[in-house]
Amino acid sequence: PLWTLFDGRHVNKHMRDIRKRWEGWDESEMAEWEIRADQLSYSVQQYRIPIVVMVTDDLELATQTFSRINSLGTPMSETHLVAALTWGENFDLRERIDALREDLPEGWQEMNEVIFLHVCKGLVRLDMTRAGQTELVKKLKEETDLLDRANKGIKQAISLLAEKALVVRHELLPYAFQLVLLAVELARNERNETSDRAFMRWFWRTSWSEIFASAAYRQIRSEHDHLRNHREGPWVRDREIPRRFDFRSARVSLFVLRLALRPTLFGADGKRGDSRELLTIHGRDALVRLFPTPRGAPSALKQQIQGAGNSFFIDPNTKSTLLDRLKKRDNLSPEEMESHFIDETAHEALLAGNLETFIDRRARAMAWFDKKGWEIRQEKENFSETSDLPKWDDCSDIAF
């Protein structure tokens, strides 16, 4: 047993016990086992563990070294190092953050703990994109309420995003730095109608523009200035919704949030649905890939299956219900069809077994919804997702 190997007396006792139990073994066999046991015990007791001592006052250097040496071991983050450097008999940073996360709304308790450090950096005006700053350790020790202030801002930001954009779970957030910057400002100032409107317009614009894709210091600082001063930044839409339609893209997160904010949502059973409840319960799983890839499907269809045209915003447990209803004529009302971006031509194609055309037409309709939403939002100061969007099938320039 491994527990005996650090003490030769335990090894010898174990071998004596074996001699008593295993009758019929000759002396040579027992001697071989005893030799092997002694060798194993010796190897464990004499094993050398290399230790490299690095002495430096440069916390950033220590952080980088720590991360690189540990790159193949247990994943560790900036929080682990800062926690070690701020530890005291009455303060454990990671335990404190865990307690604060447990008090967050459901759906946010698994949020990355490093978010708290980013918000702390923002509150004391440090570079939020740099890890392992000595100044942060110093501030955490000096300003004992810093973590509580960060927590207040995070809670306010979560409340704002859940109320105005249906970001009811951390996984639905297009970019983590959106939460960070909102939390910094909301930790400093109380919410009001004017700031809510400015903050949400900033949220939609940065989601469309994918400004935080690189999370570079220059972009973070620029967007923080826009947010703090309620100053409008550039509206950019460099690309269409991605061909592979999943949550690895922030644009897909944005698209799903906009789907959820539409005034009418129909479930697979034809009844009116509740977007907030759907996202709260299922999160990302509420975006369902409805049709499986047919056996022997051509490469073009395989690609379509992964795209927007095969993605439905429904309860994932009702997938088979919607599939069955779509395979019959006149099973879906016009309102349901519109809710799911299906027109008559697309449905007829599906009934005729032409899955490619069905998916293609849905994808085009969803691309139009995406484009028109961006055009309207950048033009209107007080845009409302739930009232200002035209129906997608009212547009004459959609290229079917």
Q: What is the CA-based Rg, rounded?
A: 29 Å
What share of the residues lie within helices? 40-55%
Order of helices and strands: HHHHHHHHHHHHHEHEHHHH
Number of helices: 18
Mean pLDDT, rounded to whole units? 87
Write up what this structure looks like.
The chain is mostly helical. It is 54% helix and 2% strand. It has 18 helices and two strands. It has a two-stranded antiparallel ribbon. Helix 1 (8-21) runs antiparallel to helix 2, helix 6 packs across helix 8 (146-165) and helix 6 crosses helix 9. The longest helix has 25 residues, at 355-379. The radius of gyration is 29 Å and the shape is flat. The protein starts with 7 loop residues before the first helix and ends in a 21-residue tail after the last helix. 29% of the residues are buried. Residues 392-400 have low confidence and may be disordered.
List keywords for this structure.
400 residues; mainly alpha; two-stranded antiparallel sheet; 18 helices; flat; disordered C terminus
Give the secondary structure arrangement, pairings included:
Elements: H1 8-21, H2 27-45, H3 59-69, H4 78-86, H5 93-102, H6 114-123, H7 134-142, H8 146-165, H9 176-188, H10 193-209, H11 217-228, H12 250-260, H13 275-282, E1 287-289, H14 299-305, E2 311-313, H15 319-326, H16 334-339, H17 344-351, H18 355-379
Antiparallel strand pairs: 1-2
Can you give me a brief rundown of this structure?
Helices cover 54% and strands 2% of the residues.
